[in-house]
Amino acid sequence: MRVLKRAHSGTENSIYTRTMAVLMKKIEDTPENMKLCMQGNCSSCPSYCGKKGEGLFCARGPSKEHVKKKGCNCPQCPVWINNGLSKMYYCT
Prior knowledge:
Layout: H1 10-23, H2 31-38, H3 57-60, H4 78-82
């Protein structure tokens, strides 16, 4: 992973700030996002542990259960797409 260094000029600093905002984007933990997430995404993911109430890991953090990486459905999730995410396996 490339490390971003804070620039000193106004334009470069603005680019740094926008880039960091995208990288650190906080996904809202809402019932709407959870519904989007579970409709054929987390619930059908090969790595999903199936624990009731778990999902929307991009907003809530990793699973409390041990997750064995068997594949990741994140890139097909509307929450992932709509928020411009790039990471996978938020459940781990």
